[in-house]
Amino acid sequence: ILRLVDRYKIKRRKINRYSVNSNYFKYQNAVMAYILGFIVSDGCVSDKNLSFGLKRSDEEILRYIKDQISYTGPVRHYRKKNGKKYSVLCVCDRTIVSDLNLYNVIRRKTGFEKFPLKIKKKFYRDFLRGVFDGDGCIQYVYKKRRSFSFFAGL
């Protein structure tokens, strides 16, 4: 049958091997806001994929996100040419990507990040915590007087 489908160029629908809670970003809560912030700072969004690539020592956050969105696929492990190990989580789901777009999380977002105003105010700090965990740092400077600096990738 597949040969006939290919011969007559009939489009086949791809079936995802793994399941995910496609409605995860439709309902706001503190954990969702945190994950959204992490995606803004350290995630990658394409037309139909949401993915993360982190150093192996940060794999725990990928497993946390995977559990929260009920994704059954694996966290994959790779080694770069320089020998550094990293972990990748890739979720293929158009509904999730579409919902992320509603929060101003768009594909090729680097440099175009916007604060997602559709998040309820009570979840702002959870969102910012996610942004900070993804790309933030604290710097303590002591010269003539003490000062703290906070940076985050938003």
Secondary structure: elements and pairs:
Elements: H1 2-7, H2 30-42, E1 43-45, E2 49-55, H3 59-68, E3 76-79, E4 85-92, H4 94-102, H5 124-135, E5 137-142, E6 146-151
Antiparallel strand pairs: 1-2, 2-4, 3-4, 5-6
Helix pairs in contact: 2-5
List descriptors.
154 residues; alpha+beta; two-stranded antiparallel sheet; 6 strands; 4-stranded antiparallel beta sheet; globular
Q: What this model shows, in words?
A:
By secondary structure, the chain is of the alpha+beta class. The chain contains 5 helices and 6 strands; from the N terminus they run ααββαββααββ. The protein has helices at residues 2-7, 30-42, 59-68, 94-102, 124-135; strands at residues 43-45, 49-55, 76-79, 85-92, 137-142, 146-151. The strands form 2 sheets. The chain has a 4-stranded antiparallel β-sheet. A two-stranded antiparallel sheet has the order 5-6. Strand 3 and strand 4 form a beta hairpin.
Q: Give the SSE string.
A: HHEEHEEHHEE
Main sheet properties: 4 strands, antiparallel
How does the helix and strand content classify structurally?
A: alpha+beta
What is the beta-strand fraction?
Answer: 15-25%
- Radius of gyration from the alpha-carbon trace, in angstroms: 19 Å
Please give the share of residues in helix: 25-40%
Report, as a whole number of angstroms, the end-to-end distance: 51 Å
Shape: globular
Average pLDDT score: 84
Oligomer: single chain
Strand arrangement, major sheet: 1-2-4-3
Number of strands: 6
Number of helices: 5
Which regions contain 5 or more consecutive residues with pLDDT less than 50?
A: none
